[in-house]
Amino acid sequence: MTREQIVGVMQAVHRAWNARDATALAALHAEDGVVHSPMFGELRGRAAIERTYEELFRAFPDWVYEPTDLIIDGDRVAQLFVSEATHSSELMGVEATFRKFRVQGVLIFEWRDGKIAVERRLYDFTSLLLQVGVLKAKPGK
Q: Residue 71's beta-bridge partner residues?
């Protein structure tokens, strides 16, 4: 893919995240694509990837994804981002806390034939859990 094509697809990623469109996001992945996620673990295949987007948007219906820096090196791409949302529904056995979170992270993509072959999601999952009240931090001494 050319740099311009990758930029165009990354703009589609941004639109699909903010539309909370699980189907559109999953369609960007190869049929046998792999995602490594702090929240969902290792996912294999477009159908599994789509299910986790659906689960995420059900739990966080106001999810906002704001991309910042985009780094492109051939078929490898790093997209820095900031996301925020409210935990409004059960997720992985945790009832809604109705608390907001804000995290910064990076998505690292490997492309193959115009699709995402591998995606690695890197963000501070512990901070997210603290912010929504799932975990409690002990004050420092």
A: 78
How is residue 1 annotated by DSSP?
-
Which candidate, 18, 139, 7, 38, places its Cα nearest to that of 83? 18
What CATH number does the domain located at 3-131 have? Answer: 3.10.450.50
Domain range annotation of the chain: 3-131
DSSP per-residue codes, 97-139: ---EEEEEEEEEEEEETTEEEEEEEEE-HHHHHHHTTSS-PPP
- Report how far residue 62's alpha carbon sits from residue 140's, in angstroms, rounded to the nearest whole number: 33
Closest alpha carbon to 29 in 109, 123, 121: 109
For position 65, what pLDDT does the model report? 93
Please report the pLDDT score of residue 42 as a whole number.
97
